[in-house]
Fold this sequence. Notes:
This protein is of the alpha+beta class. The protein has two domains: 34-144, Immunoglobulin-like; 146-184, no CATH class. The protein is 30% helix and 26% strand. Strands 2, 4, 5, 6, 8 and 9 form a six-stranded mixed beta sheet that branches. α2 (146-157) crosses α4 (169-184). It is elongated, with a radius of gyration of 24 Å.
Amino acid sequence: MYKLIAVAALVVSATWGxxxxxxxxxxxxxxxxxxxxxxxxxxxxxxANKPFRVWFGLRYMGVAPKGxxxxxxxxxxxxxxxxxxxLDKEIPSDRNHLHFGAGETETTIQLPPxxxxxxxxxxxxxxxxxxxxxYSKKITEPTISRLLLAAIHHMAYDGAPSQARSTAPHxxxxxxxxxxxxxxRIGK
Length: 188
């Protein structure tokens, strides 16, 4: 008799636990939906301590503000220098997890010098990631001070004849990029 009651209690608690997990899993997302960062590009150098624009992209889903429960919609969360949060809980709101609950599709941020990562994560009407989660790949954004950028710019143009600068901008741009990548050790 006691074994029967124990088994019944176990089944009931497992059922309630599954219901709690299902409620916390977030709204369903459409098949093939994905988020991406349209600007800046992965590895693109942005100036440090100066605002720059981040453009959010989304495919096969719509954008809706927080609190609006509509199928196949959600709103963006920008993750800065952090990994994805637990996907069955509400997305935190702090300086590393920026919420765009009004349905924004772009923002302006500024970062200190150094390498930073950016990633998008879609949340449902209650800031919980969708099921399955819809997120972008993590991109790396090196930021560089304007003084250092000017020094690298000078290195790229130093020694190039003035005629080469005016008639062959591709040469100077590629040389500039090569010096910048060499300095930051981010490219080939």
